[in-house]
Write a structure and sequence with these properties.
Layout (H helix, E strand, L loop, with lengths): L3 E2 L1 H7 L11 E6 L3 E8 L18 H19 L2 H4 L2 E13 L7 E13 L2 E10 L2 E14 L2
Antiparallel strand pairs: 1-2, 2-3, 3-5, 4-7, 5-6, 6-7
Length: 149
């Protein structure tokens, strides 16, 4: 198992594609436990073009989506390919999400995520998002692995 994944390797694990693939890299991977992800938030990112034109901000739902993508990549990377092949990961719930500071483009959003519980196909995670060591957001969420239809 490698300790980092490039965007190309993430694409092999996740069904997300541009423009919805938000994470650029996953590193400091501890198999099925934790990892750090990078999201490059740019002035021309599709999700900030209209949010808001005079003062662009990354929407909180996209921070949560980024957490989910990082967690899905961590989990798929740690599992045997037959476990996630022909499957999708769906967000089940967000128990806690706090948006502490606005994420303003152009920045590198660093996501530190951790799997805190798994039971069968249901996983629970927690994460924190930072820009330059300043906490921007944190969340606790759950997801499940389901068959593609």
């Amino acid at each position: 198992m490698t300790n980092s994944l490039s965007k190309k390797q993430i694409i092999e694990l996740l069904p997300h594609r541009e423009p919805m693939l938000l994470i650029e890299e996953l590193y400091d991977i501890k198999k099925l436990f934790s990892a750090t992800a990078i999201v490059n938030v740019k002035k021309d990112s599709f999700f900030v073009n209209g949010h808001f034109p005079d003062q662009p901000v990354m929407p909180g739902v996209f921070i949560v989506e980024s957490f989910g993508q990082a967690a899905a990549a961590l989990t798929a990377h740690g599992l045997d390919k037959s476990t996630y092949e022909n499957k999708l990961v769906f967000l089940m719930g967000v128990e806690k999400a706090k948006f502490r500071n606005p994420v303003i483009p152009d920045c590198k959003l660093i996501l530190k995520i951790e799997a805190i519980r798994s039971h069968g196909r249901v996983w629970k995670y927690k994460g924190e998002a930072f820009v330059d060591d300043k906490k921007m957001a944190d969340a606790v969420w759950s997801a499940t692995i389901v068959d593609k239809k």
